[in-house]
Write a structure and sequence with these properties.
Length: about 350
């Protein structure tokens, strides 16, 4: 909702174009969206002829008189010869116009606590913004059942859903997507490139160093910086599914951080910048510190080894990001030391 509000305040009325169904080979997934105003476009639903036609349709919707609130339209697109695209799949798009009245409803009392939004595909009815205390009685029974199932089974991570029942078709969508929790130790050249590469991606970085002056000004919105004398102490504050990236200015600091992560046991990834020689030395030192053999195997060094063999900070950061994003798609089981 905040994204819609930002575009509305900057560009005036906007149409949000959302993929509500995607079958076969498609350029984007269900839930992908873009914002279209009279003069601007932000986001993407896959580009090409599909996006060109969707933008044109959205702007036609903006040209209509806004005499009815909650204007919506749905279009189906077979991605074949008709559009000149070779994907071969099928997407369904929801077009929603947001003007003054719609924005007032979306930014009303309690909306800042919302975590899910549900709305009919037909025009004229306001969406239901789900908060921890939301009364869902206005939603059809089949929608209430879907929302309750998501609440019971999602563990706070919701998925976009298209559901059909006696009350027509509804689309539910999470308002916040889970962001990768990354703990980055070191504000040097490579650390800065890592921060830059993850900008715009679904990641939240806690950036840790011993000196406040080592951080650039300002840091991006997806970064929270933390200056501490003992960086390894920050490990205790990371979530169990965190990705730890170790690249401080000091090998002793790196060793302390790696030891703290391995000793904790619950983490998604531990990456250490360096060579195979550094890896061998660290494994020996960590073994002497009591780290078990099975836990030692969880240390990734060098990082981004599947990428180009370059020492350029930007290349290292890109290879590392690819490594982390690949792991995020197939989460590993957490392991805990005894």
């Amino acid at each position: 909702m905040q994204d819609i509000a930002n575009h509305f305040h900057r560009d005036g009325p906007v149409v949000r174009v959302t993929i509500i169904d995607a079958r076969g080979s498609t350029p984007r997934e269900m839930g992908a969206a873009m914002m279209v105003s009279v003069e601007t476009v932000a986001g993407t639903i896959g580009g090409g002829a599909l996006e060109y036609d969707a933008i044109a349709h959205a702007r036609m919707q903006l040209e209509k008189d806004a005499d009815q609130a909650w204007q919506r339209d749905v279009k189906d697109y077979p991605l074949g010869p008709r559009l000149g695209q070779c994907c071969g799949g099928h997407v369904r798009l929801l077009f929603e116009r947001y003007g003054v009245e719609e924005m007032a409803a979306l930014t009303g009392a309690g909306c800042d606590e919302a975590f899910l939004i549900a709305r009919p595909l037909s025009a004229g009815s306001a969406p239901i913004v789900i908060t921890p205390t939301q009364d869902m009685s206005l939603a059809p029974g089949f929608v209430r059942a879907l929302i309750q199932t998501q609440i019971d089974e999602s563990n706070s991570e919701f998925q976009s859903e298209l559901v059909k029942g006696a009350g027509g078709e509804w689309f539910t969508e999470p308002l916040y997507k889970k962001r990768l929790p990354i703990f980055l130790y070191g504000a040097g050249h490579v650390g800065r490139e890592v921060v830059r590469v993850f900008e715009g991606l679904a990641a939240e970085i806690t950036w840790i160093d011993t000196d406040e002056n080592r951080f650039p000004e300002p840091v991006p919105n997806h970064v929270q910086r933390l200056a501490v004398a003992a960086p390894h102490e920050a490990v205790a504050y990371a979530p169990d599914d965190a990705f730890h990236i170790v690249m401080s200015y000091s090998h002793p600091l790196d060793l302390e951080i790696c030891h703290a992560v391995l000793k904790r046991g619950s983490f998604q990834y531990l990456g250490l910048i360096g060579s195979m020689t550094k890896r061998g030395r660290f494994l020996n030192r960590l073994k002497k510190l009591g780290v078990k053999e099975a836990d030692l195997s969880r240390l990734t060094c060098p990082i981004g080894a599947g990428g180009p063999a370059s020492k350029d900070p930007a290349v290292i950061a890109i290879s590392l990001a690819a490594e982390i994003l690949r792991l995020a798609e197939t989460p590993q089981n957490y392991q805990e030391t005894d």
